[in-house]
Amino acid sequence: MIAGLIKRAAFYTLVGVIVVAAVFPFYYAILTSLKSGTALFDVGYWPTSVSLVNYVTVLSTGTFLRNIGNSLLIALAVVILSLLLGVTAAYALSRVNFRGRSLLLLTILSVSMFPQIAVLAGLFELIRALGVYNTPFALIFAYMIFTLPFTVWVLTAFMRDLPVEIEEAAIIDGATPWIIVSKVFVPLMWPAMVTTGLLAFIAAWNEFLFALTFTASSSQRTVPVAIALLGGAGQFEIPWGNIMAASVIVTVPLLVLVLVFQRKIVAGLTLGGVKG
After folding, report:
1. What is the pLDDT of residues 174-206, one digit of tens each?
2. Per the domain annotation, does 276 fall within a domain?
3. Overall domain count for the chain
4. Which CATH number does the domain housing residue 173 bear?
């Protein structure tokens, strides 16, 4: 009895430590964003005064709203293209027998293993040759290189677990491959698609290196670069309040997405783990 209570107490203590370590940075960012003036340098863990001046400053000056729009456009485009190409590629790699299928799948996955800095120079020259430098298309193209392999790999593994009888019944009814993919497999793959789509969205929303390299004007930048440049070059005082307010603003959409799709995410991560 005592041993069980000790184990339970240790478990909840560990959970509490993990939750505090994960949530505290965001909580402190919110706390700092609500301060202004000299209060920014006062160390405290509870709000003593609330000021929205940092949020007003961030949203009313510069091109921050435009940068949010850029990030949203690019992230949504990456998600849509990744899922569209990922589902069709997963069908070919999991249902169509052809020579070198396993090697092709490993090759697709290996592309995502290269660090960003390793492909930066070559990708920069390619984007310049295509004439899309300093446009959203440059970032969409660059992000697809890393989000698409992961999407294809996850959706292929998920589609392999679907019963073959479903596909055979659709073929008997005269369904074409596109009908099988769009009308039969896609409704069954929603949990996996939501999970991979959300991960692709987060990756595109938070990416910094490519966004800094492939954009030159403030109107084309995404929010991570905009936040990094909020202080401006040559400034002696860093506007921590504005930076924290901007960080909170760009984090809220991710939290909302996770809360809305949390059941689908859990289902997508656990499906296939238990066989019955």
Report:
1. 888 888 888 888 888 888 888 888 889 999 999
2. no
3. 2
4. 1.10.3720.10
Q: Read off the tokens for 206.
A: 């938070």
Q: What is the DSSP letter of 40?
A: G
Instruction: Please tell me the distance from the alpha carbon of residue 36 to that of residue 268, in angstroms, as a whole number.
Output: 43
- Report the pLDDT averaged over residues 68-92: 92
User: Quick check: 120 and 214 in contact, CB under 8 A?
Assistant: no
Q: Can you tell me the distance from the alpha carbon of 276 to that of 274, in angstroms, rounded to the nearest whole number?
A: 7
| Sign for the pseudo-dihedral over CA of 209, 199, 275, 95 | negative
Q: How far apart are CA 28 and CA 188, in angstroms?
A: 41
Owning domain of residue 6:
1-51
For position 140, what pLDDT does the model report?
94
> Please, are residues 192 and 158 in contact by the beta-carbon 8 Å criterion?
yes
Eight-class DSSP state of 32: H
Task: Report whether pLDDT(113) > 60.
Answer: yes
Q: What is the pLDDT of residues 16-35, one digit of tens each?
A: 999 888 888 888 888 888 88
